[in-house]
């Protein structure tokens, strides 16, 4: 079990590293978009290559960050029923989901994507748009991104099995690495609590100062 836990930690580190720097692809896409728009407005010149590189970079950023998103439990979940179940039942649902749904789906996507990617690479297929880009680099993001997602699914599966067997902490507990959005939400929650407390104190003080008739 310790070997599997070590594997899980290695996968977590891999996706944490990749996800941390995938954000720069979005910045690059934004800058390219801004420069392309400026050149088009000022000089009346544009290029389909600049337009396509934007969604190339977006595709890479979102697919590379899929495993990172799963690591931080940020994928959309419907917890109306799941949140009412016991901790053990929730863990078992995740085990079934990662083992019987996520893993086969990722394998199917990789299986059907890889031959198309190899065909594009061999034929040097180009975009149908004038001045467009070669196609295989953006298709390469699919098997790589899905493989990272599948690996993270295995990591989460190991964590839940370790929890059930008493070899690991609660996988549904608080994340150590808190995102900026979570930090902001926590700050706003504390500020709201402090504001409500001050309002209650002011209300209580005003009630004491009201003269009795």
Automatic annotation (TrEMBL):
GO cellular component, one term: plasma membrane
Ranges for domain Tripartite ATP-independent periplasmic transporters DctQ component: 31-161
The keyword Cell membrane is assigned to this record: yes
Protein name per its UniProtKB record: TRAP transporter small permease protein
Function: Part of the tripartite ATP-independent periplasmic (TRAP) transport system.
Protein family: Belongs to the TRAP transporter small permease family.
InterPro entries in the record: DctQ, TRAP_DctQ
Organism this protein belongs to: Lampropedia puyangensis
Compartment(s) of residence: Cell inner membrane
GO molecular function: transmembrane transporter activity
Transmembrane segments annotated in the record for this chain: 21-38, 53-71, 91-114, 134-151
Principal place of residence: membrane
Keyword terms, alphabetized: Cell inner membrane, Cell membrane, Membrane, Transmembrane, Transmembrane helix, Transport
Membrane topology annotation: Multi-pass membrane protein
Description of how the protein assembles with itself and partners: The complex comprises the extracytoplasmic solute receptor protein and the two transmembrane proteins.
Ranges in a coiled coil: none
